[in-house]
Amino acid sequence: MAFFFLILGIGLQVLHWRALRRILPPKWSPWLAAALVLIHVPLLTYVVLRLTGASSMEMGYALRPLARGGLYFVALSTFNLLLLSLEALLWRIRKHRGRDLDHDRRAFLQKGAIVSLGVLGLLTAKGYREGHGEPEVRRKELFFPDLPPAFDGLRIAHLSDLHSGPLVRRDQLRLWRAMAEREHPDLLLITGDLVDALPEEVEPIIQAFRDFPASMGRFAILGNHDYFTDPRPLWAGMEGIGFTFLENRHQVLSRGADQLVIFGLQDPMARNGRFRGLRFGPGPMPQDTALLMPRDGWRLALVHRPSNWNLALEAGARLTLSGHTHGGQINLVPGVSSAYIQGRFTRGIYHEGPHQMNVSAGLGMVGLPVRLASPPEFSLLTLRRGGTQQSQ
User: Fold this and answer.
1) Mind listing the pLDDT tens digit for each residue in 83-102?
2) How far, CA to CA in Å, does 184 sit from each of 140, 154, 259?
3) How far apart are CA 297 and CA 316, in angstroms?
4) More confident residue, 207 or 117
5) Residue 381 CA to its chain's centroid (Å)
6) What residues does each domain of the chain span?
7) What are phi and psi of 259, to 5 degrees?
8) Coil vs helix vs strand at 298
9) Half-sphere exposure (CA, 13 Å, Cβ side) for 182?
10) Which is it for strands 319-322 and 348-352: parallel, antiparallel or unpaired?
11) pTM of the complete model
12) DSSP sequence for 74-98
């Protein structure tokens, strides 16, 4: 994986160099290669350290601001490369004759670069407003014929992918808490990626969600980003404000004689051991988790990745809550989610026979501080006993 990203980074750098040579004045050409190396090296070093992990991560976090700047440059220049490729095709179609083609082509591409920068600026402004705006509240009624009668009408606030860190401000976290609290849920459930990368980034979440009122409890699991370093501060901090973590564990909720079993499956990232050489768990263990649960309890599962729905079903889940995809986060083609590269479950409600899964597009952002055609959201799910599926 690290080798793949290294080759990809070098390839992008070569393409950027070739494209910029066509646009910038010739006297700048000798400096281009050195400038691109200075921009890309911190980013590539950070990515390789993050993927191979280990003892050098302190150096990686020191490079983080430079790496983020390099990522923004790569995003900008990759977008321009796509537009320049289109413009180069248009130039060939024009088939100029009897003129200084090199000069005309350079001027044409320079104008095209200015246009593409303008388009990118508009998209960035729109994406920034969307990513930092008020989240959508997706209200859904989910019907299950076998739902225990006492839990008919149970209200669940499902939050995911908060990504507390450099791209998510404290006031956003406070807004998310206030919006979720206004819905008066019985359960508050968070399906992972609390932080962007560092354990200390959980502190704003602790401050924002302290004393959250949910009569049936507050539960969470960790996502892949939460395992980039030691997750134990996250467990300790969130449990200190009343959350229960369900990492291959379950909790029985009772109303009268009826029971609902809520359980979580640990993210596969827990077992990879790439970061600091530590493993913080075995990863998802559906069969072992199911063995400890009451046989007659109606089961609700928390899994970070929707691709692990099959494991939740293996453990007997009737309803599964997931996140991870961000709904694609940046969707440039109308009606097409870039989250499809992660699988067919991108956002919304999915059915597998009598079983259902809700995939949240999440609240935070990763990599770039924008969301396009994928606004932040959280779900307010109301469980109903019955056989008719309705939504709002």
Assistant:
1) 666 666 666 666 555 454 45
2) 15, 11, 21
3) 10
4) 207
5) 21
6) 2-130, 136-391
7) -130, 140
8) strand
9) 9
10) unpaired
11) 0.82
12) HHHHHHHHHHHHHHHHHHHHH---S
Q: What is the pLDDT of residue 389?
A: 54
**69-76, long-range: CB < 8 A, 24+ apart:** 69/39, 69/42, 70/39, 70/40, 70/42, 70/43, 70/44, 71/43, 71/367, 71/368, 72/368, 73/39, 74/12, 74/40, 74/43, 75/368, 76/120
> Which residue, among 363, 366, 367, has the nearest Cα to 375 in the 3D structure?
363
Q: Is 296 helix (H, G, I), strand (E, B) or coil?
A: coil
Q: Strand 390-391 relative to strand 136-144: parallel, antiparallel, unpaired?
A: antiparallel
What is the C-alpha to C-alpha distance for residues 80 and 114, in angstroms, rounded to an integer?
10
Task: Output the CA torsion 115→116→117→119 (10° steps).
Answer: 90
Architecture of domain 136-391: 4-Layer Sandwich (3.60)
Q: What does the block give as tokens for 161?
A: 């992918």
Q: Which residue has the higher pLDDT, 14 or 370?
A: 370
Entry field: residues in the chain = 392
Q: Between 63 and 202, where is the model more confident? A: 202
